Amino acid sequence: MSDRTILYTGKTTTTGGREGRSISDDGQLDLKLSVPGSHLPGTNPEQLFGAGWSACFTGAMRHAARAQKINLPAETSVSAEIDLGQGSEGFFLQARLTVSLPGLDRDTARALIDAAHQTCPYSKATRGNIDVVITLA
């Protein structure tokens, strides 16, 4: 018996791959896709991954801040850079997150970042699978 509960399932369908369209089953997401660097209309999987991870990471910091009775600054931001690369073993991803927590001292900010990196589902999913660098701005 498992103690795991599914809180939400996001369902999307993509047709046409990197030059296609992604649509969610509830109609809230309807995006044209384009190949990275093509300058064609549309976004790409790396941008979508970065948007999802940075949003989730912010939520994880908010959760950590509440647990530590710290007010997370309203101007908190997380910038994600997701690299798509190719090496001798094929394609790979790597990531850099830059976190801005204006008004918090560096030790407190670093503690929130470290806590978030342990609990954020995106951080958990990537841990040990891709290179990740998290920087406090």
Summarize the topology.
Blueprint lengths: L11 E4 L5 E4 L5 E3 L12 H23 L9 E11 L2 E11 L5 H14 L1 H6 L4 E6 L1
Written overview of the protein:
The chain is globular, with a radius of gyration of 17 Å. The strands form 2 sheets. The chain has a 3-stranded antiparallel β-sheet, with no helix packed on it. It folds into 2 domains: 1-43, N-terminal domain of TfIIb, CATH 2.20.25.10; 45-136, K homology (KH) domain (GMP Synthetase, Chain A, domain 3), CATH 3.30.300.20. Strand 2 and strand 3 (30-32) form a beta hairpin. 31% of the residues lie in helices and 28% in strands. It has 137 residues and is an alpha+beta fold.
- Mean pLDDT, to the nearest integer, reads 96
First and last CA, distance: 43 Å
Query: What count of domains describes the coordinates?
Result: 2
Please state the second-level CATH architecture of the largest domain: 2-Layer Sandwich
Stretches where pLDDT is under 50 for at least 5 consecutive residues are none
Return the string of H and E elements.
Answer: EEEHEEHHE
Indicate the percent of residues in helices.
25-40%
Secondary structural class = alpha+beta
Major sheet summary line: 3 strands, antiparallel
